[in-house]
From TrEMBL:
InterPro entries: Cpn60/GroEL/TCP-1, GroEL-like_apical_dom_sf, GROEL-like_equatorial_sf, MKKS. GO terms for cellular component: cytoplasm; kinociliary basal body; nucleus. This is McKusick-Kaufman/Bardet-Biedl syndromes putative chaperonin. It comes from the Eukaryota. The lineage of its organism: Eukaryota, Metazoa, Ecdysozoa, Arthropoda, Crustacea.
Length: 605
């Protein structure tokens, strides 16, 4: 690495130049960045103590929180982070999966350049990537399942798979199941009604002190009431005789300062300020009365004197709504918020919204107003336990992602096995592709079969490692994992045998169901073969000039000649949306190809 200082009339900026193939970069990529991503992946991910740039310490196991709180100066890592964010923004899931594939392939390709030319690695990789993506789409019936949105158990399975894919041990399995049911309930309530295309909104509230089993959904929105009693709220609501309750939403604090030029006696400070505020808002209050507005909502706070004056004049006043709830109410009511008191005279009617009903609700000794919009779009509020900020952020992320994924499944209901089985299927598919295409690819790119085999093995080992992460975490042990030669799913032995050195495992020692729960051992033939991941990994690492390609006596028959396995959602099956998974792999391949072409990283510090 070299540094050069650029002189500027205002600042001195240190620009760094770093070779992508420098040993220090490769070491940082392997030991820091990939280690960070892999230790945050799946239900076995570990908690991390983070100290951010502001000096705050907090524990987290969330990958999104890590990427938000940690600053990466290296542009290569920033690029991969952008891929992760793009995947999550588009599909809601598999962002970390994208980052792990991209960074792992980059590390392996950079390491492989010691033995092979850059051109051979790049061109052979592009061929393998294209062939694999086509084969996955072609062989989709072999590995996929269509979710029926009308069946609750299948919808619940999709949400449960999402929540259990994250690491959090504060909730029991019974509590997780209850939260999953509430997420599905919130999703179903937001489905568009006949004649409308838009989904409703899910407004998430946190309440301290409630157990997870008391998580609950409410139609419409819940607005917290801070300084009024249940009797006062009910009295206001009872006075609203009409069905359509008109409202105005403010996004500015209604608490003006008394001008410094105003002389105020100490003993009459409150009365003078009250008179000043009442005078400022008199015109606004008159306009609200003329249009029969009954409800005033404010994103920020309203001065006590003004609130008292407005309530005395018959308005129901609710303030301190916060940004998210205010934005949801604006979207739901369709009214334009009042963001400046000086502009309301122009077109005040556009600032008027309508609610169909209001109701006072108490939950866990806290008072709320249940707001039901006039628009027939189905909105819902979901109350979740808030043990601490980290737990609530985790649950909120699960809810938003779960609802997003379920809405995507309406468009494309195809799912694939989770818990490493899909990655195991890709591993065996790559082994099959290598056996069938080794000579052809070597002839196309004018290189040896051994070179192409080495490149194939890097891809095989990448997906092999990813197949174990969900169930094995970041541990290196892989002797108790096997892949069958018929369904290409991942299996674990009943009890790991540290002295087991056999290439295949007896059927009797394999668990009755695969890792994802979608294939039963009874669905396999009478004599299936189970191949040790440890042996597959060791074979991939052997890069001899004449590899024994027949060592793997795997049933490499065409898919159409194999037994047709039907993936079943049963019990605690774990699945992933196929569209999201495929896009994640495609995005990772594109990102790797772009980064591998780089020669020099240039960035300012």
């Amino acid at each position: 690495m070299s540094c050069v200082r650029k002189e500027n009339t205002q600042v001195n900026c240190l620009t760094k130049f770093e070779n992508l193939r420098d040993i220090n970069f490769v070491k940082e990529l392997k030991e820091n960045y990939i280690s960070l991503l892999s230790s945050s992946y799946g239900p076995k991910s570990s908690l991390k103590l983070i100290r951010n740039s502001a000096g705050s310490d907090f524990l987290t196991s969330s990958s999104s929180t890590l990427l938000e709180q940690l600053s990466f100066s290296n542009p290569c890592f920033k690029f991969i982070n952008a891929l992760i964010s793009a995947q999550n923004k588009t599909y809601g899931v598999n962002g970390l999966f994208t980052g792990l594939i991209c960074s792992s392939l980059l590390l392996r390709a950079l390491t492989l350049e010691v033995e092979l030319s850059h051109r051979v690695i790049r061109e052979a990789s592009e061929y393998i990537q294209s062939a694999l993506l086509k084969k996955l789409q072609k062989d989709l019936p072999q590995i996929s399942f269509k979710v029926n949105i009308d069946k609750l158990d299948e919808v619940l399975c999709s949400v449960r798979s999402l929540i259990t894919s994250k690491s959090y041990y504060i909730f029991s399995s019974k509590e997780i199941e209850h939260i999953c049911i509430k997420i599905v309930e919130a999703f179903l309530k937001t489905l568009p009604i006949e004649g409308y295309d838009d989904f409703g909104q899910v407004n998430i509230l946190d309440i301290e002190g409630i157990p997870a089993m008391q998580s609950k959904t409410f139609d419409g929105f819940l607005i917290r009431v801070y300084d009024s009693s249940l009797e006062d709220i009910n009295r206001h609501i009872k006075s609203f005789s009409c069905n359509d309750i008109k409202l105005a939403i403010f996004t500015v604090p209604l608490s003006p300062e008394v001008p410094k030029t105003t002389l105020i006696e100490q003993n009459s400070n409150m009365s003078i300020k009250f008179a000043y505020i009442s005078d400022i808002f008199k015109n606004l209050s008159d306009m609200l009365h003329k249009r029969n507005v009954k409800l005033i909502l404010c994103q920020m706070f309203i001065h006590d004197c003004l609130k008292f004056d407005l309530e005395k004049n018959g308005f129901l006043v609710l303030d301190r709504l916060g940004t998210l709830l205010t934005d949801s109410l604006i979207k739901s009511t369709g009214c334009s918020p009042i963001s400046s008191l000086s502009d309301v005279d122009c077109n005040f009617d556009s600032h008027i919204g309508v609610a169909s009903a209001l109701k006072a609700v108490t939950f866990n000794d806290k008072l709320y107003v249940n707001f039901l919009p006039k628009d027939p779009v189905q909105d819902v509020s979901l109350i979740l336990p808030a043990v601490n900020n980290h737990v609530f952020k985790y649950l909120k992320e699960c809810v938003n992602t779960g609802v997003f994924v379920l809405r995507e499944l309406i468009k494309d209901p195809v799912v694939v096995p989770g818990a490493g089985c899909f990655e195991a299927f890709i591993t065996m598919t790559l082994l099959q592709m290598r056996t069938e295409n080794l000579t052809k690819i070597a002839d196309i790119y004018h290189t040896t079969q051994s070179s192409i085999n080495m490149i194939f093995c890097e891809y095989i080992e990448t997906f092999l490692y990813l197949s174990m992460l969900p169930t094995n975490g970041n541990r290196r042990s892989s002797q108790d994992f096997f892949i069958d030669d018929e369904s290409f799913h991942l299996w674990k032995v009943v009890s790991a045998n540290p002295n087991c050195k056999s290439f295949t495992q007896p059927v009797t020692e394999i668990r009755d169901v695969c890792s994802c729960g979608g294939i039963l051992k009874s669905q396999l033939s009478a004599e299936p073969h189970f191949y040790s991941i440890l042996d597959i990994k060791n074979y991939c690492r052997s890069k001899s000039e004449n590899p024994e390609l027949d060592k793997f006596k795997i049933n490499f028959l065409p898919i159409k000649g194999k037994k047709n396995f039907v993936l079943k959602i049963q019990g605690n099956s774990i699945v992933d949306p196929f569209a999201a998974k495929l896009n994640s792999i495609r995005l990772a391949f594109d990102g790797f190809s772009e980064l591998f072409r780089l020669g020099l990283l240039v960035y300012d510090t």
